[in-house]
Design brief:
By secondary structure, the chain is an alpha+beta fold. About 40% of the residues lie in helices and about 20% in strands. The structure holds phenylalanine (PHE). Phenylalanine binds near residues 172, 308 and 310.
């Protein structure tokens, strides 16, 4: 078969195939069969090598004309098919504009998240950096390095979950203080949020809860710095009129240790149900870092002093949002959670 005959045959094949095409999908198959890289027309073009050189220009022309003719034929067919297919789709797809809309409900942040974010924003504004320690700790970080050696009675203040002889779920984010001071010399100013665990379970206690720890160590830090910072924190989180007061307390890793109260933001300090008639609400524990703790971490306690504080995030959330049962914070009931928007 010479080239002219081959061209003729291809033309006939195309005419026959085109008459049969019912969808743009089969048209695509045809395009590949004739115009594709390994298609029949390309195959002819490749065979030009075998044609005597003087005939090549003539053959080239014929083949190009064939290609063009084929392309035009397919294009025309394609636009006709597209229109038909669109028409068919329109007649099938009907939109019922009276159907009720799909409603996607807005989510809301958990109260814990709101308080944590607010605390981070308040304290990072004062120059605190975030440090997150591990939840599984060993005895050294959770107790011994915090001036609470084995058999120290203060260990009974926190009922501990042990995982192994020397491995426990941290009972306090204070463990992170040691990890920071071990690695870094003052000035230190860190804020450490995280989950802590204690074997405790009632309306105001949960075996897992969250704390926010703060630690500042530098030259010349005094209890006045702690008090000033707490005043600022209390005003920002509970409102401008709130005052703080310090009561003597005890923690092994701080000396002196204090319990921090804020004046009742509900009654302005006159006494109400929230403050149990006292006008004050206890919000956190704090104190000056015990020199034994500084020295244990390799910090010169004659040169540097520091303060630390730790608060329960759930407790702050319950106070601020008037939540009376801690269980509500752990149930994940969206009807409850949806009420808290910032
Ligand atoms: N870690 C103490 C607790 O969990 C709180 C605290 C932190 C007290 C830092 C003083 C300084 O009760």
């Amino acid at each position: 078969m010479n080239v002219q005959e081959k061209i003729k045959k291809i033309e006939e094949q195309i005419e026959a195939a085109v008459a049969d095409v019912k969808s743009s999908k089969t048209l695509l198959d045809l395009k590949l069969r004739f115009l594709g890289k390994t298609g029949e027309i390309s195959a002819l073009l490749k065979n030009m090598r075998d044609i005597p050189p003087e005939q090549r220009p003539q053959m080239g022309k014929l083949l190009n004309a064939l290609r063009q003719w084929t392309e035009e034929k397919f294009d025309k067919l394609e636009s006709g098919l597209k229109q038909l297919e669109l028409k068919a789709r329109y007649s099938q797809e009907k939109i019922d504009v009276t159907m009720p809309a799909n409603i996607t409900e807005d989510g809301a942040y958990h109260p814990n998240t709101l308080i944590r974010n607010e605390l981070i924003s308040i304290f990072s504004g004062m120059g605190f950096e975030i440090f997150e320690g591990p939840e599984i700790e060993n005895d050294y970080y959770n107790f011994t390095a915090l001036n609470t050696p084995k058999d120290h009675p203060a260990r009974d203040m926190q009922d501990t979950f042990y995982l192994a002889e020397d491995l426990l779920l941290r009972t306090q984010t204070s463990a992170g203080q040691i990890r920071v001071m071990e690695k870094k010399q003052p000035p230190i100013k860190i804020l450490s949020p995280g989950k802590v665990y204690r074997s405790d379970d009632d309306a105001t206690h949960s075996p897992m809860f969250s704390q926010m720890e703060g630690l500042v160590v530098d030259k010349g830090i005094t209890l006045c710095d702690l008090k000033g910072m707490l005043d600022e924190f209390a005003r920002k989180i509970f409102g401008g009129a709130v005052k703080t007061r310090l009561r003597p307390s005890y923690f092994p890793f701080t000396e002196p240790s204090v319990e921090v109260d804020v004046s009742c933001f509900e009654c302005g300090g006159n006494g109400c149900r929230l403050c149990k008639g006292t006008g004050w609400i206890e919000v956190l524990g704090a104190g000056m870092v015990n020199r034994h703790v500084l020295e244990g971490c390799g910090i010169d306690a004659d040169e540097y002093t520091g303060f630390a504080f730790g608060m329960g995030i759930e407790r702050i959330a319950m106070l601020k949002y008037g939540i009376n049962n801690m269980k509500l914070l752990f149930e994940g009931d969206t009807r409850f959670l949806k009420q808290f928007k910032d």
